[in-house]
Amino acid sequence: MKKIFCFLLLVPLFAFDGGEQFLSKIEIYQRESYFKKKVYEENEWKSFYKLAEADQVIAPNNYDMHLMNAAIFFATNKLRESKNLKSFIFSAELRDAAVVHTQQMIQRNFFDHFNNRAPKLRSPEDRIKLFGVNSSASAENIDLNNVEMPCRISYKQLAEKIVKAFYDSPPHRKILLDKKYQYIGCAAIFDNHDKGGYRYIKTTQDFSAAY
Hints:
Order of helices and strands: EHHHHHEHHEHHEE
Distance between the termini: 36 Å
Strand order of the largest sheet: 1-3-5-4-2
Strand content: 15-25%
């Protein structure tokens, strides 16, 4: 079972601060990990796919969110390359905006681009501005997916499942393959409990043109 939505927007050329106040409350984000920053500096998708960690089976109760985020980023660039398109450039700002929205969807139990529970985080435009993204164009994809429990799927396999779900949906595929978007940030977070033998995971991808 999966649900996916996308959102297209034009972004005014200004920004304001304040995203850190939301990130500071997300414990899983605060954990130190090679995959939080350095992995993007030291790898492209082919070398990432050779890392032992990418083939680790996920333990939803104790997983590396930063590894999951990176796996989705590199799986997305694998797709881009297969279509003879330039790879996306990693944006920590877009990743952080995606983290906050994904955590809000998990914590507040909703699945939508618009967050009516937190005014500062209401729209995709609000969230990326909160993290200082100055771009003339932006877009957002969100996905609701699941793994059967006990989990037997690796980080790399789940990332490819999520990216395939986006690609199989025409409006999401259009965003993934749009040449004007150069930057991306991805974030995926598991729900806290199983439902009917499955563990659900929500994903946000935020895209932007140059900024």
